[in-house]
User: Fold this.
Amino acid sequence: MKRVFFFIIISTIIGCKKNEPKPVQNHSDSLTEHSVKNHKPEISTSKEESVKKINDEILHALKTKNYKHFAEFIHPEKGVRFSMYAFISVNEDKNFSKADFIKYLPTKTVFTWGARDGSGDAHQSTIKEYLNNWVFVKDFTQSSYTLNAFQAGGNSLNNLKEIYPDTDFTENYIKPVGKNNELDWNTLRLVFEQFQGKYYLVAVINDKWTI
Assistant:
């Protein structure tokens, strides 16, 4: 009888342990643990770093004549304006949409880009000729760089900040070489605007000493 009673008690204890509810893991705790293990710190890029990187990519594209890559930086809505000198003429400077730039790039179509200082003669050339012979007249990959600051200025009116008041611009400046060439400097300015969180090119401006 004692053995039967003892067997009943043991069976009852085992049954209770089997039916004991298991601890439930908190879902939020699981997510937190997973997030901690898999979280990678975000790399924040400053405006200065972003613009400098794009500036250098554009200069490299111009130097290597990779104009299709250059086209990737053209503003999707405003296109890109080319100004022969520091003075920006909204009505006379050539402005291309990205589509038109790509369309006319491989062609022999001649455009009038402006008037040469001194003679007043119209400067006419294809897109490739203008980029190669006027825009990248010097190796600007070896230039002095500044963001939103002018390093040089000639006798041509500089109205960049009036035409593009809420933009960022870079200046790539090549100083004169030799004591007797004080006026033989060149500057290439690139103007950028943000669109959907990215910087795009809206203007390419050359500057140098003019007569």
